[in-house]
Amino acid sequence: MSALSLTELQAVNSFAALPAAFYTRLAPQGLNNPRLLHANADAAALIGLDPAALSTPEFLDVFSGARPLPGGDTLAAVYSGHQFGVWAGQLGDGRAHLLGEVQGPEGGWELQLKGSGMTPYSRMGDGRAVLRSSVREYLASEAMHGLGVPTTRALALVVSDDPVMRETVETAAIVTRMSPSFVRFGSFEHWSSRRQPDMLKTLADYVIDRYYPECRDAPAGESPADTAPYINLLRAVTRRTALLMADWQAVGFCHGVMNTDNMSILGLTLDYGPYGFMDGFRLGHVCNHSDSEGRYSWNRQPSVALWNLYRLGGSLHMLVQDADALRAVLDEFEAVFTRAFHDRMGAKMGLAAWLPEDEALLDDLLKLMDANQADFTLTWRRLADAVQGRRSAFEDLFIDRPAASAWLDRLVARHAQDGRLVQETVAGMNRVNPLYVLRNHLAEQAIRAAKTGDASEIDTLMKLLRNPFVAQEGYERYATLPPDWAGGIEVSCSS
Ligand code: AMP
Ligand code: MG
After folding, report:
1. Rounded distance, CA 423 to CA 455, Å?
2. Active site residue 161
3. Is the pTM of the predicted complex or chain greater than 0.85?
4. Which InterPro entries is this protein grouped with (predicted)?
């Protein structure tokens, strides 16, 4: 497929073919004097878009909300959800517009503007997103992709001088996100809470037909029971979500707002707000300043995900009377998560395969990291050197050096048990322990530059984070401990 210009994209919008109650058709509210701060050629390639198209006036027009995507059908979707464990009722795209969907070389992608003005679902909000949070979303989704974590993507970042009131006056921006689907757990809760099984079924069938067609497969010789596809859907989402949690835990990512309306039905990382990649490790690290009870702390993420899956299962109960069958599916979460978590953490420790006794080895490291607030990313990255005898950089991360050293002795002994060549072990570790992650202070530096119209830091970070496992010469400062001022950065739900 040759690269296309924007007008050749041939968008459609299959979500718009759902009944009208699923959304509101409306045009975005553009920005005054919008400027394209950054565009992502990698994401453009996913929809077959020519890189040259990124610098055209049409591109800026479409992704600043000034004109529709050719062939698209712009709308804001409705959903509901549980926020911080409490039923919040109707929510929806309060500041996002789905432009349409483009078939790329390897699948379809929905294109959505975020920060593009008020919709019927804006509640008390102004429909806008500030530059700060838009840069953070733009960078984080690409960073997660670089780490191999399932995520929505980002195509473009458009800025303006339009004032937006938050704690202080900031400026408005629009980030274009891409995802095969933006349907959330809360999209299902919306219809079950309204006791509208027909609409719930319509949504479930839409999701199954488009994204999980295998859910309709019956075991050989059997015809699928009426309810089997919905049980299978819950199983598929449960599995993907469990794998996603293992991925998050392994890279030290905290989402910050794991409300059911931010949980992707495709198991993607969705809605980057007050997220954080941990610097100093704390088991109970809370990245979101607004989360005073620590509901969404790092060590609670897997169990919160399961709690959220229970809400999805509760919704599907309207289609599947057999609650035991749904519960049995949810019970699979723990085994899938634990296995994936052990796989990932075992690989990070350089183990050929996970043995039951490795649980204690991992636990003791995490406890030690927690007690010393050791830097998450560097602890893991420096392990590869440490197991080759260059121990000091690793031990430097711990106040209690003797304890760190004693733990290393155990790991080295464990490697001896595996009997692999050191080079092989070390190469494997460096393939899974990133050197570069989007630390808060790196995002902050990119934001500060972006406020002056300078996208060079965004550009540098995009290049490093796209390939976070490989050291790049000249970029050492992106792979060091955070500066003292990083501890003072507060991220909250304000965005
Ligand atoms: P979030 O926690 O950012 O995922 O947002 C929760 C809900 O609030 C969603 O329905 C958003 O669309 C909506 N929302 C957040 N910020 C705004 C805003 N500035 N204007 C309108 N709606 C918003
Ligand atoms: Mg959200």
Report:
1. 39
2. no
3. yes
4. SelO
Residues surrounding ion ligand 2 at CB below 5 Å: 262, 271
Q: Would residue 105 be called left, alpha or beta, if left means φ above 0 and alpha means ψ between -120 and 50 degrees?
A: alpha
Q: How confident is the model at residue 220, as a pLDDT?
A: 83
Q: How far is CA 479 from the centre of its chain?
A: 22
CB neighbour list of residue 393: distance below 8 Å, 6 or more residues apart: 382, 385, 386
Residue 324 exposed, middle or buried by CB count within 10 Å (0-12, 13-18, 19+): exposed
d(CA 289, CA 55): 37
pLDDT at 453 (0 to 100): 96
How far from 302 is each of 270, 305, 373, CA to CA, in Å?
15, 5, 21
Q: Is the CB of 127 under 6 A from ligand 1?
A: yes
Ligand 1 and 93: CB distance under 6 A: yes
CB 333 within 8 A of CB 236: no
Contact 312, 260 (CB under 8 A): yes
Residue 240 in contact with residue 232, Cβ under 8 Å? Answer: no
| Count of other CB atoms within 10 angstroms of residue 213 | 10
Question: Running DSSP on this structure, what letter comes out for residue 140?
Answer: H
Phi and psi of 487, rounded to 5°? -65, -20
314/334 Cα distance (integer angstroms): 18
For the stretch 75-98, pLDDT in tens is 999 999 999 999 999 999 999 999
Which atom of ligand 1 is found nearest the CA of 129?
A: 19
Q: How far apart are the first and last CA of the chain?
A: 38
Give the pLDDT confidence of 241-298 residue by residue, as tens digits. Answer: 999 999 999 999 999 999 999 999 999 999 999 999 999 999 999 999 999 999 999 9
Q: Which amino acid is at 329?
A: V
